[in-house]
Amino acid sequence: MKAPSGIDARRRLAAPTVAMLPRVTDSLSFLYLDVVRVLQDDTGVCAEVTSERHGRQTVYLPTAALSCVLLGPGTSITARALATLARHGTTVLVTGSGGVRCYAGAQPDSLSTTWLERQVRAWADDSLRLVVATAMYEKRFGGGTVPPGTTLEQLRGMEGQRVKAQYRILAQQYKIGRFRRAYDPAQWHGQDPVNLALSSANTCLYGIVHAAVLALGCSPALGFVHSGNQQALVYDIADLYKAELTIPLAFSLHAATNPEAEARRSFREGLRLFRLLPRIVHDLQDLLDPSGDREVPDPEEQLVDLWDPVAGSLPGGANHGTGS
């Protein structure tokens, strides 16, 4: 038998086996990349960056341990690398900067349908659907705040009153007078700064929720409160966090000269969306399987250092903006 060449040997050593693959069940791991070239070499899938100061640098990706890779702006990926990620069960998403949009996703054949099946069962049964919808409102209002027998119409009324009350409190806090939520694409630039910032911040939130929904293998089109839209579930889940994240941020930008850009920048620089990813996954799993015993994620443990072609390693979870 002919002895394998050095390249063949490396290829054989690099070829993953079932035993080499770590077991990833309900725990999802995310990796965001931008301004890199992702390719496959004889050793594995790597991210390649070229800079004037450091030349060409290569970082190998732990593909078998990744559940989802988010490709941001300036990223290119070879078909061979994409095939390896798919073979290892990694979902690949194309996103905007900082994950503020989710444009497309490629799900591997091996992605579990467990959560999709739970979603479809609950969505198709009117009684179960109401249970999930009620659980969503309880996550927003607090546990035990929804009386038994409350209808969806009553829940919508409760939500409307609470959101209006939050608008009123924040408007008083920032001394901007009476606020009324308005979303009119035809009159986009005629809107006040708070409405512009709120629309922009909500769009950022939808992007990262969309990424989490796809990574879990669920359908973004099958919502429990919203319906008739390809992002119905995305809107459902995003509503869980608006009172905490996007609404206060929008009011804080009431005097901004470019509130849309400021809202997007705030999410990106503060890494708020990435911190939110594990929480979205946990909340979605909790809604679809309330009897499951899952550990609440600690957002402080989800971030690692940031790579920079000039400065090297930078601490994650910090605002590295140079402006005000």
Task: Give me the secondary-structure topology.
Elements lengths: L5 H9 L15 E4 L3 E4 L4 E7 L3 E6 L7 E4 L4 E2 L1 H9 L3 E5 L6 E5 L7 H11 L1 H16 L10 H22 L19 H24 L15 H7 L7 H7 L6 H11 L2 H17 L17 E3 L3 E3 L10
Termini gap: 68 Å
CATH level-3 fold name of the largest domain: Four Helix Bundle (Hemerythrin (Met), subunit A)
Quantity of strands, as a count? 10
| Form type | globular
What structural class do helix, strand and pairing data support? alpha/beta
- Sketch the topology as an H/E string, one letter per element: HEEEEEEHEEHHHHHHHHEE
Going by CATH, the architecture of the largest domain would be Up-down Bundle
- What amount of the residues lies in strands? 5-15%
Assigned CATH superfamily of the largest domain: CRISPR-associated endonuclease Cas1, C-terminal domain
Number of domains: 2
What do the pLDDT scores average to?
Answer: 80
Q: How big is the Rg?
A: 22 Å
Regarding CATH, which class of the largest domain? Mainly Alpha
Query: Largest beta sheet, briefly?
Result: 4 strands, mixed
Percent helix range: 40-55%
Low-confidence stretches: 1-26
Report the total helices: 10
- Order of strands across the main sheet: 1-5-7-8
GO biological process, one term: defense response to virus
Enzyme class: hydrolase
EC number: 3.1.-.-
Organism: Streptomyces nodosus
